[in-house]
Design a protein that fits this description.
This protein is of the alpha/beta class. The chain is 49% helix and 13% strand. Helix 1 packs across helix 2 and helix 12 crosses helix 13.
């Protein structure tokens, strides 16, 4: 897959669980995928933070990855998220994603011990050695405990064969501007921080990785298109419309809030896995009101 084929709205799926047995609900996953594709998203990303990839056992992880690739069936590109403490496990997951036909992998280096840049570099290099598909370098220190500078990530893109793009999720718009400036606009980078989506596009982001389309349909895609078309007034209006929901799902935890929102919309996505807690009744009501306001505008 060439870099130019991956841009726009990359939509995360949640991993739905049955209420009875806490097992992956494949029928609901199919429904979520169909709904996302119907909104016009440019790619589907499974097993990210919203997909609770870190909370699945190995068999469940492979089941969700396989099902997502098979069910999407080349309607849009599929990206598989990989976040593992050890290089051995990350390499195994990467090879599996490549084998089943994923179009790219999104790799974040989870950390227990503080990792040096040499260790992070070797982690990505080992993954690259077993795949033939593009790697998105994913910087999300809030969940991974690793913070990679723009300069270091661009160095990996330059020196690691399959590392071709970056997802920046710190919420620091200056980092995105640095990625664009230092690479002279040649390295695709994606925004992973929902509440700065408009600023990120204006800073040169190639796309937006977000779970928001699960709840608000094609509004993120409309935002992307309005920015691409240079319609600043429409862009600002669309972003303002979405912002309360974007802030709410980030503050409340993506898996718990989005599953609550899907349940409100009549899609039985279950609950996030412990130790994550479901939303309180007050928070559910707040989310319901936010969704109603977004849909009425």
């Amino acid at each position: 897959m060439e870099n130019k084929q991956l841009s726009g709205i990359i939509a995360y799926t949640v991993t739905p669980f049955t209420a009875e047995s806490d097992t992956v609900d494949l029928a609901v996953l199919e429904k979520i995928i169909d709904d996302l594709i119907a909104t016009g998203v440019n790619a589907i990303a499974a097993l990210g933070s919203a997909g609770e990839g870190a909370y699945l056992d190995a068999a469940e992880w492979e089941l969700v990855a396989q099902k997502t690739v098979d069910y999407v069936d080349s309607r849009v590109p599929v990206i598989i998220g990989i976040s593992e403490l050890t290089t051995k496990k990350a390499v195994k997951h990467a090879a599996f994603a490549d084998k089943i036909g994923a179009n790219a992998i999104m790799v974040s280096p989870f950390s227990y011990y503080r990792l040096s840049e040499d260790e992070i570099f070797d982690h990505y290099a080992a993954i690259s050695a077993v795949v033939s598909i593009p790697i998105m370098i994913y910087n999300n220190p809030a969940t991974c405990g690793v913070d990679m500078s723009p300069e270091f990530m661009l160095n990996m893109v330059e020196k690691i064969e399959n590392a071709t793009m970056i997802k920046e999720s710190t919420g620091d718009i200056q980092r995105m501007r640095s990625l664009h400036r230092l690479s002279k606009g040649t390295v695709p980078f994606f925004n992973g921080c929902n509440y700065i989506a408009l600023d990120a596009f204006n800073a040169g982001a190639t796309g937006w990785c977000t779970v928001a389309p699960c709840l608000i349909g094609d509004l993120p895609k409309q935002l992307f298109e309005s920015v691409k078309n240079g319609d600043n007034k429409k862009s600002k209006s669309l972003f303002k419309q979405q912002l309360p929901l974007l802030e709410f799902i980030v503050q409340g935890g993506l898996a718990s809030t989005v599953k609550a929102g899907l349940n409100i919309k009549g899609i039985a996505a279950g609950y996030a896995r412990l130790p994550l807690k479901p939303l309180t009744e007050d928070k559910k009501q707040q989310l319901k009101e936010i969704l109603h306001k977004v849909e009425q505008r």
